[in-house]
Amino acid sequence: MTPRPTDDLYVRYMRAFEASTEHTNGCGPCQAGEDCSAGQPVHERFARLQDAYRERQSKQQR
Asked: How many CB atoms lie within 10 A of CB 6?
């Protein structure tokens, strides 16, 4: 039995989620919902990958 191929987009999406969560947990401004220059690229990457993953999922369900 061959292993299932890794879903690269999903893996990148989950890593970005972990990075975003980890940053937020250690950043007071992010916890307060304020902009943070260090967190902005981390959160933006997560949002982009989340959008891409959800878009792909919606296309697969059609």
From this structure: 8
